[in-house]
């Protein structure tokens, strides 16, 4: 009978499917704001709430601007894992996912699979390493230094803190959590890389270690779980050796590190990507706690397509013509490629022209056939770097394009502004 009960408990521990983790996140996640809207003050409120639930939370240091840097802890097992997020202030997705994971694990401590994690693992996480950058929503810290390139020089208080936390505790596994450019693709395809993974080597010659091999199996476990939601949208981050970066040096110092980069997924918001991160994190913890990672094939990770940048844009207007051919423009018609800049979700993100060319090979998340229209830049010259604020006029209309008040005198057939159609949606045929 005892053996039967143990067998049943083992089965229950192993039954957390990716779909079940997704449902658990949907019901119990503690993050409410879009990650890009979370400031340091919001983090402090969330951590206070988690502390009241019984989670161990400590202030472990201060930023250059005097803001508190916190560490969360869960579990009492022998296997030590350190996760850190938002060392780049404008890369916030994993911060929300960490808060969700700690809150959900704490609330469900009595479940067999959570108890197994707690008994096998001691997990520490720094949810916001760069609070000054987070509040300014900038990559760098208050000294205008990229913390992730400060692992050797240690010029920043944030870098010194991260190294000290690693050195004092010496965990055998690290998770380095970032966001990548949302137009990054999984291979040379138009598919956005919603998540990219990299098992980080500890030297330039890419020496394989047992910890590296274990992390490769963990990465394959994550790919298996996320393929239930984002198949074809998982990439492999560049493994170019970065001698001043923390991931590379953590691996060199004895903490083999798994890098997780969050991009974007078509038609989904930031919270969907928080959920994907939550599933990835808990999948890795489950695999380690249960021991299932030891039998996972590395093939899924190793076969991931490499990240590619520059082949995708938010908008492409194909075969566009201007009323007059300016000297600086290519021979008409042209393809106009436009991209949206990164901003907090509460703000309107400007869209700017990336390129103008006779036949662009860049794919657009949205593409429009402008061949039957003249395009007029509303507030500036039509040039790369200018705002993608366009009026469209059918070519068969009689329009005096030299008019001093063009839009009032000759109302456009369609207007594209701040990345959306404020007039004439559907007038230009959408190709993609």
Amino-to-carboxy terminus distance = 61 Å
Q: What percent of the residues sit in helical stretches (DSSP H or I)?
A: 25-40%
- β-strand percent reads 15-25%
Topology, number of strands? 18
CATH topology (level 3) name of the largest domain: Aminopeptidase
Q: Would you state the CATH class of the largest domain? A: Alpha Beta
Give the domain tally.
2
Question: Count of DSSP helices?
Answer: 12
The CATH architecture of the largest domain is 3-Layer(aba) Sandwich
Task: Report low-confidence residues grouped into runs of 5 or more.
Answer: 1-13
Rg from alpha-carbon coordinates: 25 Å
CATH superfamily (homologous) name of the largest domain = Zn peptidases
Which sequence of SSEs, written as H and E, runs from N to C?
Answer: HHHEEEHHEHHEEEHEHEHHEEEEEEEHEE
Describe the strand arrangement of the main beta sheet, using strand numbers: 1-2-4-3-5-9-7-8
By secondary-structure content and strand pairing, the structural class works out as alpha/beta
The global form is: elongated
The largest sheet is: 8 strands, mixed
The pLDDT mean sits at: 95
């Amino acid at each position: 009978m005892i053996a039967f009960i143990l067998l049943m408990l083992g089965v229950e521990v192993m039954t957390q499917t990716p779909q079940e983790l997704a449902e658990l996140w949907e019901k119990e996640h503690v993050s409410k704001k879009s990650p890009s809207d979370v400031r340091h003050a919001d983090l402090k409120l969330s951590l206070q709430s988690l502390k009241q639930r019984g989670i161990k939370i400590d202030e472990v240091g201060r930023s250059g601007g005097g803001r508190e840097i916190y560490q969360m802890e869960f579990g009492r097992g022998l296997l030590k894992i350190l996760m850190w997020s938002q060392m780049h202030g404008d890369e916030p997705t994993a911060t929300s996912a960490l808060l969700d994971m700690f809150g959900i694990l704490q609330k469900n401590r009595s479940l067999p699979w959570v108890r197994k994690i707690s008994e096998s693992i001691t997990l520490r996480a720094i949810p916001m390493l760069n609070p000054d950058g987070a509040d300014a929503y900038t990559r760098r810290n208050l000294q205008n230094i990229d913390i992730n390139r400060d692992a050797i020089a240690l010029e920043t208080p944030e870098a010194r803190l991260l190294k000290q936390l690693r050195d004092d505790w010496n965990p055998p596994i690290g998770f380095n959590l970032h966001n990548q450019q949302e137009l990054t693709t999984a291979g040379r395809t138009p598919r956005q890389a919603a998540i990219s993974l990299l098992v980080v080597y500890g030297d330039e010659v890419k020496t394989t270690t047992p910890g590296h091999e274990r992390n490769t199996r963990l990465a394959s476990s994550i790919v298996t779980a996320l393929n239930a939601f984002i198949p074809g949208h998982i990439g492999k981050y560049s493994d170019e050796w970065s001698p001043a970066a923390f991931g590379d040096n953590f691996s060199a110092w004895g903490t083999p590190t798994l890098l997780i980069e969050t991009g974007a997924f078509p038609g989904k918001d930031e919270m969907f990507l928080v959920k994907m991160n939550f599933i990835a994190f808990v999948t890795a913890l489950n695999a380690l706690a249960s021991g299932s990672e030891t039998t996972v094939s590395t093939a899924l990770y190793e076969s991931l397509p490499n990240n590619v940048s520059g082949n995708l844009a938010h908008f492409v207007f194909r075969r566009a013509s201007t009323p007059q051919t300016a000297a600086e423009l290519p021979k008409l018609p042209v393809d106009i490629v436009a991209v949206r800049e990164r901003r907090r979700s509460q703000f309107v993100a400007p869209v700017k022209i990336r390129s103008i060319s006779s036949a662009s090979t860049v794919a657009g998340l949205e593409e429009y056939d402008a061949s039957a229209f003249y395009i007029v830049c509303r507030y500036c010259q039509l040039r790369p770097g200018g705002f993608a604020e366009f009026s469209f006029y059918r070519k068969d209309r009689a329009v005096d394009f030299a008019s001093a008040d063009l839009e009032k005198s000759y109302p456009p057939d369609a207007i594209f502004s701040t990345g959306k159609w404020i007039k004439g949606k559907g007038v230009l045929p959408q190709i993609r």
